Amino acid sequence: MGKIKVKKFSGELVDFDMEKLKNSLRRTKAGEELIQSIVATVKNRLYDGISTKEIYQMAFKMLNKSKSKTNASRYKLKKAIMELGPSGFPFEKFIAAIIKAEGFETEVGVIVQGYCVSHEVDVVVENEHKHIMVECKYHNKQGRVNDIKIPLYIKSRFLDIEKQHKKEEGDHFIHEQWIYTNTRFSSEAIKYGECAGLKLVSWDYPHNNSVADQINKHGLFPITTLTTLSKKDIQKLLEKGYVLCKDICSNPNVLVEVGIDRAKHKKIMQNAKELSEYIANNH
Q: Which of 27, 70, 139, 167 has CA 20 to 30 A from 114's CA?
């Protein structure tokens, strides 16, 4: 039998990679017996041209039926971030939390005066040595690629802000510009970013320090990963400003405040706690 082709969200056809599926399942910390069962099921249902979405749904369904809902929550991480919308503001708060966990002070949605005009910066980041502007490019659909126009535009804004900041405060701070996205950057965007001194962070770039890596490193899972919450309940929590599972753990009363059925509370809190404590046993 020849190589099975799978259709990605972008429409591109690529060879099916069984090891890639196994690795993604192992990252959920599911038991090996369950992983092998999922792999066998997927293998039996493969056909040429099958979509990655269909494979994902098969695996997710089996994980979600297992004893631990947390395995399914970890598996849906990428999709969960896309469910933070429709606006990009929860994603900006989410990225600010990740950066804060690295030891920085952060502020979301700041109007900063440039040399020519003022700019709204998604996240302003500071410590005693650095002054950093962070732009967040959020997409609620897979397959979206951030092309070179994104870093070109953001670099021009940064230069305007930097010129004004140096005029006011001199060179006391080291200035940097970071761009975070929940999808991917094109190869040209990455090449330009490296050349222009921009730090680009996407779902799987750079290696060992991507968005996915940073989430797992700090245990900062968004509430949209919780399979024990309905979409309606998630929306209520997002409207209240709750983005992280650990925020629910710190304030369980919010479940009462937004009117979530009390019968669900125990499972929701268990799901949130297990995700928030994920780093304790993995880093």
A: 139
- Kindly state the tokens that stand for 251: 């304030």
| pLDDT tens-digit series, residues 39-57 | 999 999 999 999 999 999 9
Q: Is the residue at 84 inside a domain? A: no
Answer yes or no: is 161 within a domain. yes
How would you classify the pairing of strands 105-113 and 145-146? unpaired
The parent domain of residue 244 ranges over 222-281
Q: For residue 11, give the H/E element and its range.
A: none
Per DSSP, the three-state class of 207 is coil
Q: How many C-alpha atoms does 98 have within 13 Å on its Cβ side?
A: 25
Instruction: Note the pTM of the prediction, 2 decimals.
Output: 0.88
Q: Which residue in 267, 238, 209, 191 sits closest to 94, CA to CA?
A: 238
Angle at 204 between CA 200 and CA 205, to 5 degrees: 30
- According to DSSP, residue 243 is labeled -
Q: Is 72 contained in some domain? A: no
Q: How many CB atoms lie within 10 A of CB 165?
A: 20
3-state secondary structure of 118: strand
Domain end call among 179, 195, 217: 217
Distances (CA, A) of 9 to 53, 54, 246, 279: 7, 11, 31, 30
Q: What is the pLDDT of residues 237-261, one digit of tens each?
A: 999 999 999 999 999 999 999 999 9
Structural domain total, the chain: 3
Side-chain-side CA neighbours of residue 49 (13 Å): 0
Return phi, psi of residue 221, to 5°.
Answer: -85, 135
Continuous segment of H or E residues that includes residue 254: helix 254-257
Minimal CA–CA distance to 130: which of 105, 100, 109?
105
